[in-house]
Amino acid sequence: MSLLDEYYNSSDEENRLLSQHGQVEYLTTMKYIHECIDRMTSPAILEVGAGTGRYSVALAKEGYSVTAVELVPHNLEILRSKLDGTEPIKALQGNALDLSAFNDDSFDLTMLLGPMYHLYTVEDKMQALAEAVRVTKPGGYILVAYCMNEPTVIQYIFMAGHFNDAEWMDSMLTDDWHCKSEPKEIFELVRTEDISYLNSAFPVDRVKLVATDGASHYLKTLIDGMDQACFAKWMDYHFATCERQDLIGASNHTLDILKVRV
Question: Is this model's pTM higher than 0.85 or not?
Answer without folding.
Answer: yes
